[in-house]
Structure formats: C-alpha cells, structure tokens
C-alpha cells in the first residue's frame, strides 16, 4: 500500500469518513516528518478483551528495558523525534514524543494504563514500532485536518485540561477547521477529540521521522488497521501516505 492509493474508501464507511480531507504542509514534511493518515468508520469500541490482554502482555514482556533516560537517545526512531523537536526549537526535556513517554511510563510502573480498546490498540502498535500513533474521534473534529506550522493563534486544550494553553509559533501541529490543535507535534493530544467508548469514527495518525522509511510506517499503519478490525471491526479510508 502506498501514497498512490490515498482516497480508497469502503462503501458505507460513514459520512464524516467519506468527506474529510487531510493535507500536510511541505515545510513540515521538509523537517523529515513522515506519516500515514487514515480514517476508520463503523467501529465498535469496547472496554477490554481477553485475547487483546494476552497480546498486550506478550508485547510488554518483549520490550527493551531502557534502564535510563540516556538509553532512549540511542534508539534511532526515538532519537528521530528528538531531532524534529530540535529543528523547530523545542526542548526535548519539556516535549517528549508519545512513544518515548509510553516506554518511560512502563519502565516506571511495569504496565500500560488501559483506556479502551481503540486507544489500547494504537498504544500497543506504538510500543512495538516506537512510532507516534494517535486516534481522534471524528464526531468532535471540525471540518478538515491540516498538518502545518503553528502561528501561535491556535486554540489548544491538552488531554485532561479544562482551559486552553498557549502554543508558540513555529512548532508543527495537527489542526482542524476551527483552528484547534488536535495533536501538538507528537507530544500531546487534546480533550476535544479524545476517543471514548461510544466513538464510531476515528482519524488516525501513524507518524515517523527521518529514521523511519516509508515501508516501516506503512507496515505499522497496516498492523494498526488489522488489529483494529480484529477487535473493533471497522472500515478504513487512506487519506495520505509517503
């Protein structure tokens, strides 16, 4: 599967999945950011599943240990996200890419916090690949989605927050038609589009960097689609890929 197939759609996928578009600004892609972006409709989210529990346990048991924070810097994929942050002048101490954040959490607690199956599935694939993955409830997304440089005027309410937080100009972010950031770099998702149990349509991000070639990112996207279908059903439409 590749970029030439962008726009493929299954019948009756859902109105939002059929109409939404995604665009990535050349200045952001020029930083070395790469990704596959797609939507899925007809999803049936659940709290948990015994078979998935076994799959996750096996993944956790096979993770590298990363005994210190310095060890994260030696992983080329995680280091690639650090390079992206440096390229836009952001501190890696204050802005940790989501896969590194997950690995740090597991090192500290020994487990992965469970949210719901749609979220747990993309977290599992993120752990396996060290890519930055995310899902956003399409019912809460206004208009279309752009990956672009921030101006500083965007609205940003991080996951778990109730009030907007400032975002400086010159970062990159995923922004909807209302000018709201739905994902800041690959470090913070937002309250507005969080996936809940009654979510039936999602916009998905599978993001890499200069250390991850196109086939690596596509393999992760295909794994995510397959696992989501296995445990939550659904039909996909590819919006963009390298």
Descriptive notes:
The protein is of the alpha+beta class. The protein has one domain (3-240): Phenylalanyl-trna Synthetase, Chain B, domain 3 (Phenylalanyl-tRNA Synthetase, Chain B, domain 3). The protein contains eight helices and nine strands. The chain has a five-stranded mixed beta sheet. It has a four-stranded antiparallel beta sheet with strand order 3-8-2-9. Helix 3 (50-61) runs parallel beside helix 7 (117-129) and helix 7 packs antiparallel against helix 8. The longest helix is centred in the C-terminal third of the chain and has 19 residues, at 214-232. It is globular and about 45 Å long. The N and C termini lie close together (10 Å). 42% of the residues are buried. Mean pLDDT is 94; it is low at 1-7.
Q: What is the CATH topology classification name? A: Phenylalanyl-tRNA Synthetase, Chain B, domain 3
Number of helices: 8
Structural class: alpha+beta
Percentage of residues assigned to helices:
25-40%
Name the CATH superfamily assignment: Phenylalanyl-trna Synthetase, Chain B, domain 3
Give start-end ranges of low-pLDDT stretches: 1-7
Biggest sheet layout: 5 strands, mixed
Our measurement of the CA-to-CA distance between the termini, rounded to an integer number of angstroms, reads: 10 Å
Outline: globular
CATH class: Alpha Beta
Radius of gyration: 17 Å
User: What is the total domain count?
Assistant: 1
Write the CATH architecture name: 3-Layer(bba) Sandwich
